[in-house]
Amino acid sequence: MSFPTTRLRRLRQTPVLRNLVRETILTRDDLVMPLFVCPGTNVRIPISSMPGNFNLSVDLLVEECRRLYGLGIQAILLFGIPEHKDEHGLVACEHNGIVQQAVRAIKSALPDLYIIADICNCEYTSHGHCGTIVNGDVHNDLTLVTLAKQSVSMAEEGVDMVAPSDMMDGRVGAIRKSLDENGFYNTPIMAYSAKYASAFYGPFREAADSAPKFGNRATYQMDPANGNEALREVALDIEEGADIVMVKPALSYLDIIQRVKTTFNMPIAAYNVSGEYAMVKAAGANGWIDEKRMVREILTSIKRAGSDIIITYHAQEIIKEL
């Protein structure tokens, strides 16, 4: 039927009615808060390009987790800034690695807080790339060995989920095999399946001290122009045993989130990344936007596109409203 029999504005007349017919509901259960842990004691270093975020030593990280858990945040994604780095990122596999220390401390204080460990080498290599360098580029298969070791090390310390973000071919299968062989067959893998070589990662690289010392990551992260390739990447990760697949970044790739959800009907995570966060914060600080409304609109759009999990630095702000 058409106008005047059908008047779609009828369903917009009051807040109660708008809430009753709302199609997309954003809740605290959708959110994961990324956090950064660094060496030392009583260390709290502001991340200048990401206002409200910090590099925290383990002791202050536990306090921050306690605060976030009190707000209702139930899951975190943990990144580490190590005291020293090496050519292969093997420091990420050490029993006393910075993330391993943090996991033990958090689980001791907050056993019910869900900890997802990022699995990658860029924060841990002296050159800033995501794996072992051979002839000027990341060697795919050698890097798989390190990623598998890192994943097992994290599982041994009690992480609830591992999240490989490196974009090496075959890494989900290699990690799944190593986890299973070591008895961690119940540890889920959230794969950064469609991770693009994006300009939106700049603030994160400041936070994690992970900018590549030479070249770029275009030989392993995806071309932002490609969509069909994302579906191939996701299909391979699912075949290798991924439990959750991720699209990163989120805002410029809402079409990819929607295509992945429609094609595979898998649990989908989307990473609302540092550059997306920084742009909102900068515009809000200048009074150019209504920051609170914009954050809610952005996160709702990510969920509407098909994401079940939203990893976002806005989590600690939006959860107060939810």
UniProtKB/TrEMBL annotation:
5-aminolevulinate 2 binds at S274, Y313. Mg(2+) binds at E233. InterPro entries: ALAD, ALAD_AS, Aldolase_TIM. GO terms for molecular function: porphobilinogen synthase activity; zinc ion binding. Its EC number is 4.2.1.24. The active site is at K195, K248. SMART domains: ALAD. Belongs to the ALAD family. 5-aminolevulinate 1 binds at R205, R217. PANTHER family: DELTA-AMINOLEVULINIC ACID DEHYDRATASE. Homooctamer. It comes from Aquipluma nitroreducens. This is Delta-aminolevulinic acid dehydratase. Pathway: Porphyrin-containing compound metabolism; protoporphyrin-IX biosynthesis; coproporphyrinogen-III from 5-aminolevulinate: step 1/4. One of its GO terms (biological process) is protoporphyrinogen IX biosynthetic process. Keywords: Heme biosynthesis, Lyase, Magnesium, Metal-binding, Porphyrin biosynthesis, Zinc. It is an enzyme of class 4 (lyase). One of its GO terms (cellular component) is cytosol. Zn(2+) binds at C120, C122, C130. It catalyses: 2 5-aminolevulinate = porphobilinogen + 2 H2O + H(+).
